[in-house]
Amino acid sequence: MDQNRLRHGHQPAVVRGRPGSRADHVAVRSRVRCPRCGFSYRLFRETLGDSMSAQLLDRKVAIITGAASGMGLATAATFLEHGAKVVLADIQQDAGQTAADQLGPAARFRRVDVTDADQLESLVQYAADEFGSLDVLFSNAGAACDLSPVAELAPEGLRRTLALNLDAHAAAHKFALRQFRRQGRAGSIITTASIAALQAGWNGAAYSMAKAAVLALVRQTALESKGTGTRSNAILPGAVLTPMIPPMFGIADADASRFLSRVSAAIGGQTLIGRAGLASDIANAALFLASDLSSWITGADLTVDGGAMAFTKDATVDLITQVACEFASDEVRE
Ligand SMILES: NC(=O)c1ccc[n+]([C@@H]2O[C@H](COP(=O)([O-])OP(=O)(O)OC[C@H]3O[C@@H](n4cnc5c(N)ncnc54)[C@H](O)[C@@H]3O)[C@@H](O)[C@H]2O)c1
User: What's the per-residue H, E or C state across the chain?
Assistant: First the structure.
Protein backbone atom coordinates (compact mmCIF):
# COMPACT_ATOMS: atom_id res chain seq x y z
CA MET A 1 0.00 0.00 0.00
CA ASP A 2 1.22 3.50 -0.79
CA GLN A 3 2.21 4.88 2.63
CA ASN A 4 0.95 8.33 1.66
CA ARG A 5 -2.52 7.08 0.96
CA LEU A 6 -4.73 6.52 3.94
CA ARG A 7 -7.15 3.80 4.93
CA HIS A 8 -10.01 6.04 3.88
CA GLY A 9 -8.38 6.93 0.57
CA HIS A 10 -7.56 10.52 1.52
CA GLN A 11 -4.19 12.07 2.22
CA PRO A 12 -3.77 14.49 5.15
CA ALA A 13 -2.64 17.86 3.88
CA VAL A 14 -0.94 20.64 5.80
CA VAL A 15 -0.65 23.95 3.97
CA ARG A 16 3.03 24.94 3.80
CA GLY A 17 4.99 28.07 2.95
CA ARG A 18 8.67 28.07 1.86
CA PRO A 19 10.61 25.98 4.45
CA GLY A 20 12.11 28.23 7.13
CA SER A 21 10.26 31.34 5.95
CA ARG A 22 7.79 33.26 8.13
CA ALA A 23 5.07 32.19 5.73
CA ASP A 24 6.09 28.63 6.46
CA HIS A 25 5.91 29.22 10.21
CA VAL A 26 2.50 30.86 9.95
CA ALA A 27 1.00 28.54 7.39
CA VAL A 28 2.50 25.16 8.26
CA ARG A 29 0.08 24.50 11.04
CA SER A 30 -2.66 26.93 10.20
CA ARG A 31 -4.77 24.48 8.26
CA VAL A 32 -4.92 20.75 8.44
CA ARG A 33 -7.13 18.45 6.47
CA CYS A 34 -8.80 15.48 8.07
CA PRO A 35 -7.54 12.23 6.59
CA ARG A 36 -10.89 10.48 6.67
CA CYS A 37 -13.44 12.97 5.40
CA GLY A 38 -11.27 15.57 3.65
CA PHE A 39 -12.66 18.33 5.88
CA SER A 40 -10.23 21.22 6.21
CA TYR A 41 -9.79 22.65 9.71
CA ARG A 42 -9.08 26.33 10.29
CA LEU A 43 -6.73 26.62 13.23
CA PHE A 44 -5.84 29.06 15.98
CA ARG A 45 -3.70 31.61 14.17
CA GLU A 46 -6.25 32.09 11.43
CA THR A 47 -8.99 32.50 14.02
CA LEU A 48 -7.26 35.05 16.24
CA GLY A 49 -4.72 36.62 13.90
CA ASP A 50 -1.08 37.57 14.48
CA SER A 51 -1.82 39.45 17.71
CA MET A 52 -2.12 36.03 19.35
CA SER A 53 1.38 34.93 18.41
CA ALA A 54 2.60 33.89 21.89
CA GLN A 55 3.92 30.37 22.18
CA LEU A 56 1.58 29.19 24.92
CA LEU A 57 3.11 25.71 25.18
CA ASP A 58 6.77 26.53 24.69
CA ARG A 59 8.92 23.40 25.34
CA LYS A 60 5.99 21.46 26.80
CA VAL A 61 5.60 17.80 25.89
CA ALA A 62 2.11 16.54 25.09
CA ILE A 63 0.49 13.20 24.37
CA ILE A 64 -2.74 13.30 22.37
CA THR A 65 -4.78 10.13 21.93
CA GLY A 66 -7.13 9.82 18.96
CA ALA A 67 -4.78 12.17 17.11
CA ALA A 68 -5.03 10.69 13.61
CA SER A 69 -8.36 12.40 12.98
CA GLY A 70 -10.89 15.02 14.04
CA MET A 71 -10.37 16.92 17.30
CA GLY A 72 -7.16 15.09 18.20
CA LEU A 73 -5.53 15.94 14.87
CA ALA A 74 -6.60 19.60 15.05
CA THR A 75 -5.29 19.80 18.63
CA ALA A 76 -1.94 18.27 17.64
CA ALA A 77 -1.52 20.96 14.97
CA THR A 78 -2.51 23.72 17.43
CA PHE A 79 -0.19 22.49 20.21
CA LEU A 80 2.70 22.29 17.73
CA GLU A 81 1.98 25.80 16.55
CA HIS A 82 2.34 26.90 20.17
CA GLY A 83 5.77 25.37 20.65
CA ALA A 84 4.89 21.96 22.11
CA LYS A 85 6.44 18.63 21.24
CA VAL A 86 3.62 16.23 20.54
CA VAL A 87 3.24 12.46 20.50
CA LEU A 88 0.22 11.63 18.37
CA ALA A 89 -1.29 8.29 19.42
CA ASP A 90 -3.98 6.45 17.52
CA ILE A 91 -5.06 2.99 16.43
CA GLN A 92 -4.90 4.10 12.77
CA GLN A 93 -1.27 3.47 11.83
CA ASP A 94 -1.13 4.97 8.32
CA ALA A 95 -3.20 8.07 8.98
CA GLY A 96 -1.38 8.79 12.24
CA GLN A 97 2.11 8.30 10.82
CA THR A 98 1.35 10.42 7.75
CA ALA A 99 -0.12 13.21 9.90
CA ALA A 100 2.94 13.24 12.19
CA ASP A 101 5.28 13.32 9.16
CA GLN A 102 3.35 16.27 7.74
CA LEU A 103 3.28 18.16 11.04
CA GLY A 104 7.07 18.32 11.27
CA PRO A 105 10.04 17.38 13.46
CA ALA A 106 8.40 18.12 16.83
CA ALA A 107 5.70 15.51 16.12
CA ARG A 108 5.95 11.76 16.65
CA PHE A 109 3.41 9.02 16.04
CA ARG A 110 2.83 5.87 18.08
CA ARG A 111 0.27 3.25 17.12
CA VAL A 112 -1.66 2.66 20.32
CA ASP A 113 -4.89 0.87 21.09
CA VAL A 114 -6.02 2.84 24.13
CA THR A 115 -8.14 -0.08 25.37
CA ASP A 116 -4.86 -1.92 26.08
CA ALA A 117 -3.43 -0.50 29.32
CA ASP A 118 0.06 -1.89 28.61
CA GLN A 119 0.18 0.09 25.36
CA LEU A 120 -0.85 3.27 27.21
CA GLU A 121 1.90 2.72 29.78
CA SER A 122 4.52 2.32 27.04
CA LEU A 123 3.12 5.42 25.29
CA VAL A 124 3.82 7.55 28.37
CA GLN A 125 7.28 5.99 28.70
CA TYR A 126 7.94 6.69 25.01
CA ALA A 127 7.05 10.40 25.36
CA ALA A 128 9.32 10.74 28.39
CA ASP A 129 12.21 8.90 26.69
CA GLU A 130 11.82 10.77 23.42
CA PHE A 131 11.26 14.32 24.73
CA GLY A 132 12.48 14.14 28.36
CA SER A 133 9.20 14.62 30.25
CA LEU A 134 5.42 14.76 30.01
CA ASP A 135 3.53 18.03 30.63
CA VAL A 136 0.15 17.53 28.98
CA LEU A 137 -2.08 14.52 28.42
CA PHE A 138 -5.04 15.06 26.10
CA SER A 139 -6.99 11.83 26.59
CA ASN A 140 -9.31 12.15 23.65
CA ALA A 141 -9.72 8.89 21.68
CA GLY A 142 -13.31 7.72 21.58
CA ALA A 143 -16.18 6.53 19.39
CA ALA A 144 -19.91 5.97 19.64
CA CYS A 145 -19.57 2.13 19.59
CA ASP A 146 -22.88 0.50 20.60
CA LEU A 147 -25.85 2.76 19.83
CA SER A 148 -28.52 0.41 21.24
CA PRO A 149 -31.29 1.81 23.44
CA VAL A 150 -31.19 0.68 27.09
CA ALA A 151 -33.86 -1.99 26.54
CA GLU A 152 -31.74 -3.62 23.81
CA LEU A 153 -28.27 -3.07 25.25
CA ALA A 154 -26.26 -6.33 25.42
CA PRO A 155 -23.47 -6.75 27.99
CA GLU A 156 -20.85 -7.12 25.24
CA GLY A 157 -21.84 -3.81 23.60
CA LEU A 158 -21.87 -2.00 26.93
CA ARG A 159 -18.45 -3.41 27.90
CA ARG A 160 -16.91 -2.51 24.51
CA THR A 161 -18.25 1.05 24.74
CA LEU A 162 -17.06 1.54 28.32
CA ALA A 163 -13.65 0.01 27.54
CA LEU A 164 -12.94 2.71 24.96
CA ASN A 165 -14.82 5.68 26.41
CA LEU A 166 -14.15 5.19 30.14
CA ASP A 167 -11.60 2.51 31.09
CA ALA A 168 -9.02 3.87 28.63
CA HIS A 169 -9.26 7.38 30.13
CA ALA A 170 -8.82 5.97 33.67
CA ALA A 171 -5.69 4.06 32.58
CA ALA A 172 -4.31 7.12 30.75
CA HIS A 173 -4.81 9.26 33.87
CA LYS A 174 -3.06 6.62 35.99
CA PHE A 175 0.08 6.45 33.86
CA ALA A 176 0.25 10.24 33.37
CA LEU A 177 -0.04 10.82 37.15
CA ARG A 178 2.73 8.28 37.80
CA GLN A 179 4.94 10.03 35.24
CA PHE A 180 4.30 13.47 36.81
CA ARG A 181 5.34 12.01 40.19
CA ARG A 182 8.45 10.32 38.73
CA GLN A 183 9.64 13.49 37.01
CA GLY A 184 8.78 15.71 40.02
CA ARG A 185 6.92 18.12 37.77
CA ALA A 186 3.19 18.75 37.51
CA GLY A 187 1.14 18.47 34.36
CA SER A 188 -2.25 19.17 32.83
CA ILE A 189 -4.65 16.34 32.02
CA ILE A 190 -7.48 17.14 29.64
CA THR A 191 -10.14 14.54 28.90
CA THR A 192 -12.73 14.61 26.16
CA ALA A 193 -16.18 13.93 27.56
CA SER A 194 -19.36 15.12 25.78
CA ILE A 195 -22.56 17.06 26.37
CA ALA A 196 -24.09 13.56 26.19
CA ALA A 197 -22.86 13.32 29.80
CA LEU A 198 -25.33 16.06 30.77
CA GLN A 199 -28.38 15.50 28.61
CA ALA A 200 -29.98 12.39 27.08
CA GLY A 201 -30.54 12.17 23.35
CA TRP A 202 -27.18 13.21 21.90
CA ASN A 203 -25.74 9.71 21.51
CA GLY A 204 -26.24 6.07 22.51
CA ALA A 205 -27.00 5.04 26.10
CA ALA A 206 -23.69 3.24 26.72
CA TYR A 207 -21.66 6.14 25.32
CA SER A 208 -23.59 8.70 27.42
CA MET A 209 -23.04 6.59 30.56
CA ALA A 210 -19.31 6.40 29.83
CA LYS A 211 -19.01 10.14 29.23
CA ALA A 212 -20.90 10.92 32.46
CA ALA A 213 -18.52 8.67 34.40
CA VAL A 214 -15.56 10.44 32.76
CA LEU A 215 -16.62 13.64 34.56
CA ALA A 216 -16.28 11.83 37.90
CA LEU A 217 -12.85 10.53 36.88
CA VAL A 218 -11.73 14.04 35.94
CA ARG A 219 -12.82 15.46 39.30
CA GLN A 220 -11.27 12.55 41.24
CA THR A 221 -7.93 13.05 39.48
CA ALA A 222 -8.12 16.77 40.31
CA LEU A 223 -8.78 15.97 43.97
CA GLU A 224 -6.01 13.40 44.23
CA SER A 225 -3.59 15.93 42.69
CA LYS A 226 -4.29 18.43 45.46
CA GLY A 227 -1.23 20.51 46.24
CA THR A 228 0.91 19.04 43.44
CA GLY A 229 0.12 21.61 40.74
CA THR A 230 -1.29 18.94 38.46
CA ARG A 231 -4.65 19.90 36.99
CA SER A 232 -7.41 17.77 35.50
CA ASN A 233 -10.26 19.15 33.41
CA ALA A 234 -12.89 17.89 30.98
CA ILE A 235 -13.95 19.27 27.63
CA LEU A 236 -17.58 18.54 26.74
CA PRO A 237 -18.00 19.02 23.00
CA GLY A 238 -21.41 19.51 21.46
CA ALA A 239 -22.06 18.20 17.93
CA VAL A 240 -18.78 18.83 16.12
CA LEU A 241 -18.24 18.12 12.42
CA THR A 242 -15.67 15.32 12.54
CA PRO A 243 -15.40 11.86 10.97
CA MET A 244 -17.07 10.41 14.07
CA ILE A 245 -20.49 11.68 12.91
CA PRO A 246 -21.13 10.10 9.46
CA PRO A 247 -20.83 6.41 10.47
CA MET A 248 -23.31 7.01 13.30
CA PHE A 249 -25.90 7.74 10.60
CA GLY A 250 -24.82 4.94 8.25
CA ILE A 251 -22.97 7.30 5.87
CA ALA A 252 -20.03 5.73 3.99
CA ASP A 253 -16.53 7.27 4.20
CA ALA A 254 -16.70 8.24 0.52
CA ASP A 255 -19.72 10.47 1.21
CA ALA A 256 -18.58 11.81 4.59
CA SER A 257 -17.31 15.19 3.43
CA ARG A 258 -20.45 16.04 1.42
CA PHE A 259 -22.63 14.81 4.28
CA LEU A 260 -20.82 16.99 6.85
CA SER A 261 -21.14 20.04 4.58
CA ARG A 262 -24.90 19.51 4.41
CA VAL A 263 -25.14 18.98 8.17
CA SER A 264 -23.16 22.19 8.68
CA ALA A 265 -25.60 24.16 6.50
CA ALA A 266 -28.62 22.60 8.20
CA ILE A 267 -27.64 23.05 11.86
CA GLY A 268 -25.54 26.21 11.71
CA GLY A 269 -28.44 28.62 12.08
CA GLN A 270 -29.89 26.60 14.97
CA THR A 271 -26.89 27.19 17.25
CA LEU A 272 -26.56 30.31 19.43
CA ILE A 273 -23.27 31.15 17.71
CA GLY A 274 -24.74 30.73 14.23
CA ARG A 275 -22.42 28.05 12.88
CA ALA A 276 -21.69 24.38 13.43
CA GLY A 277 -18.85 23.24 15.70
CA LEU A 278 -15.42 22.50 14.22
CA ALA A 279 -12.52 20.42 15.49
CA SER A 280 -10.51 23.65 15.82
CA ASP A 281 -13.03 24.91 18.42
CA ILE A 282 -12.08 21.95 20.61
CA ALA A 283 -8.37 22.41 19.83
CA ASN A 284 -8.53 26.01 21.07
CA ALA A 285 -10.22 24.92 24.31
CA ALA A 286 -7.60 22.21 24.81
CA LEU A 287 -4.85 24.78 24.21
CA PHE A 288 -6.30 26.98 26.95
CA LEU A 289 -6.55 24.08 29.43
CA ALA A 290 -3.05 22.84 28.55
CA SER A 291 -1.46 26.26 28.99
CA ASP A 292 -0.71 28.33 32.09
CA LEU A 293 -3.60 30.64 31.10
CA SER A 294 -5.83 28.16 32.96
CA SER A 295 -3.52 27.71 35.96
CA TRP A 296 -6.33 28.20 38.51
CA ILE A 297 -8.76 25.86 36.79
CA THR A 298 -9.00 22.23 37.85
CA GLY A 299 -11.80 19.70 38.23
CA ALA A 300 -13.85 21.73 35.75
CA ASP A 301 -16.25 20.74 32.97
CA LEU A 302 -15.87 23.04 29.97
CA THR A 303 -18.75 22.79 27.52
CA VAL A 304 -17.71 23.74 23.98
CA ASP A 305 -21.03 23.42 22.23
CA GLY A 306 -22.04 26.69 20.57
CA GLY A 307 -24.40 27.26 23.51
CA ALA A 308 -26.38 24.03 23.13
CA MET A 309 -26.51 23.40 26.89
CA ALA A 310 -27.63 26.97 27.57
CA PHE A 311 -31.19 26.34 26.46
CA THR A 312 -33.65 23.48 26.39
CA LYS A 313 -34.29 21.40 23.27
CA ASP A 314 -37.46 20.09 24.86
CA ALA A 315 -40.65 21.22 23.07
CA THR A 316 -42.69 21.58 26.30
CA VAL A 317 -42.34 25.38 26.47
CA ASP A 318 -43.36 25.73 22.80
CA LEU A 319 -46.43 23.60 23.50
CA ILE A 320 -47.38 25.66 26.58
CA THR A 321 -46.97 28.84 24.49
CA GLN A 322 -49.29 27.39 21.85
CA VAL A 323 -51.87 26.43 24.51
CA ALA A 324 -51.59 29.97 26.00
CA CYS A 325 -52.29 31.54 22.57
CA GLU A 326 -55.28 29.26 22.00
CA PHE A 327 -56.49 29.92 25.56
CA ALA A 328 -56.21 33.72 25.07
CA SER A 329 -58.20 33.65 21.83
CA ASP A 330 -60.86 31.42 23.46
CA GLU A 331 -61.15 33.98 26.32
CA VAL A 332 -61.57 36.86 23.80
CA ARG A 333 -64.36 34.95 22.01
CA GLU A 334 -66.26 34.16 25.25
N1 LIG B 1 -17.72 14.76 17.01
C2 LIG B 1 -18.58 15.04 17.96
O3 LIG B 1 -19.66 15.60 17.72
C4 LIG B 1 -18.25 14.70 19.40
C5 LIG B 1 -19.10 15.22 20.40
C6 LIG B 1 -18.80 14.98 21.73
C7 LIG B 1 -17.66 14.24 22.06
N8 LIG B 1 -16.85 13.71 21.07
C9 LIG B 1 -15.66 12.98 21.50
O10 LIG B 1 -14.53 13.62 20.94
C11 LIG B 1 -13.44 12.70 20.88
C12 LIG B 1 -12.78 12.80 19.52
O13 LIG B 1 -13.70 12.39 18.53
P14 LIG B 1 -13.77 13.06 17.07
O15 LIG B 1 -15.09 13.67 16.95
O16 LIG B 1 -12.55 13.84 16.81
O17 LIG B 1 -13.85 11.71 16.20
P18 LIG B 1 -12.80 11.04 15.20
O19 LIG B 1 -13.42 9.76 14.81
O20 LIG B 1 -12.43 12.00 14.13
O21 LIG B 1 -11.51 10.81 16.11
C22 LIG B 1 -11.44 9.78 17.06
C23 LIG B 1 -10.07 9.12 16.93
O24 LIG B 1 -9.96 8.11 17.97
C25 LIG B 1 -9.29 7.02 17.40
N26 LIG B 1 -9.56 5.78 18.14
C27 LIG B 1 -10.74 5.10 18.18
N28 LIG B 1 -10.56 3.98 18.91
C29 LIG B 1 -9.27 3.96 19.33
C30 LIG B 1 -8.51 3.08 20.12
N31 LIG B 1 -9.02 1.94 20.61
N32 LIG B 1 -7.21 3.37 20.36
C33 LIG B 1 -6.67 4.51 19.85
N34 LIG B 1 -7.34 5.38 19.09
C35 LIG B 1 -8.64 5.11 18.84
C36 LIG B 1 -9.82 6.93 15.97
O37 LIG B 1 -8.95 6.17 15.14
C38 LIG B 1 -9.87 8.41 15.59
O39 LIG B 1 -8.68 8.83 14.96
C40 LIG B 1 -14.04 11.34 21.22
O41 LIG B 1 -13.75 11.03 22.57
C42 LIG B 1 -15.52 11.56 21.05
O43 LIG B 1 -16.27 10.69 21.86
C44 LIG B 1 -17.13 13.94 19.77
Answer: CCCCCCCCCCCCCECCCCCCCHHHHHHHCCEEECCCCCCEEECHHHHHCHHHCCCCCCCCEEEEECCCCHHHHHHHHHHHHCCCEEEEEECCHHHHHHHHHHHCCCEEEEECCCCCHHHHHHHHHHHHHHHCCCCEEEECCCCCCCCCCHHHCCHHHHHHHHHHHHHHHHHHHHHHHHHHHHHCCCCEEEEECCHHHCCCCCCCHHHHHHHHHHHHHHHHHHHHCCCCCCEEEEEEECCECCCCHHHHCCCCHHHHHHHHHHHHHHHHCCCCCCCCECHHHHHHHHHHHHCHHHCCCCCCEEEECCCHHHCCCCCHHHHHHHHHHHHHHHHHHC
- pLDDT tens for each residue of 32-71: 666 666 666 555 444 444 445 579 999 999 999 999 999 9
Domain boundaries, the chain: 22-333
Query: Is the shortest distance between the CB of 35 and ligand 1 below 6 Å?
Result: no
Residue 266 alpha carbon to ligand 1 centre in Å: 23
What is the per-residue pLDDT across 62-105, written as a single tens digit (0 to 9) for each? 999 999 999 999 999 999 999 999 999 999 999 999 999 999 99
* Rounded distance from Cα 21 to ligand 1 centre (Å): 34
Among the atoms of ligand 1, which is closest to the Cα of residue 239? 3
126 is catalytic: no
**Which one from 161, 202, 207, 232 is the annotated catalytic residue?**
207
Domain 22-333 in this protein, CATH class: alpha beta
306 C-beta closer than 6 A to ligand 1: no
204 lines ligand 1 (CB under 6 A): no
Q: How far is the centre of ligand 1, averaged over its atoms, from the C-alpha of 321 (Å)?
A: 39
